[in-house]
Amino acid sequence: MELTESHTLPVPQQRAWEALNDTAMLKACIPGCESIEADGENAYAVALTAAVGPVKARFKGRMQLADIDAPRSYTIVFEGQGGAAGFGKGDAHVTLEPAGDAATTLAYTARAQVGGKLAQIGSRLVDGAARKIAAEFFRRFGEQLGEQRDSGAAAMDESAGPATAENAANEAGDDNVDDTGSTDASQTRKRSWTAWISKS
């Protein structure tokens, strides 16, 4: 089986690279993923539940990152065992290229072999299941990146908001006074002093 696809991610290249190496992000995006844990240098132990046609099983496997060229590309070598359901193994070459200042094109070519019951159900069902899992992963991955980007922008706006308002008030000076009492401290003191003199 060979699968080649490309997707546009709504973040710069460096951020996309960091997300691809964030195990918490990957766990949240891989359908059926139960755990991803470090298992040596640039290697991870993975457990997930997947359904391929009539076969549904819990797979345990390992993936190793090789040919790392941060933040542009790497190769994932993977293998997994699903008990009576069979096994799967293969590799995927992943590349990241800038698509403007705030987007990245992710492309990959994956090759895999399956055995056991998985091999018996036919290549068409296996290919279809792989494409479905990949599509769901990238849907979730894009949504997660978009949410992080939006929340980061909102946090920046909130932190800049009060300072911007304060600077605007300072630049406006003492003449920028409204009738609701929203004045700066110096203008308030001037009014109080004038009222005290007039009463005297």
UniProtKB/TrEMBL annotation:
PANTHER family: BLL0334 PROTEIN (PTHR38588). This is Carbon monoxide dehydrogenase. SUPFAM superfamilies: Bet v1-like. It comes from Paraburkholderia acidisoli. Residues 148-200 are annotated as: Disordered. Residues 160-171 have a biased composition (Low complexity). It holds the Pfam family COXG. InterPro entries: CO_DH_gsu (IPR010419), START-like_dom_sf (IPR023393). It comes from the Bacteria.
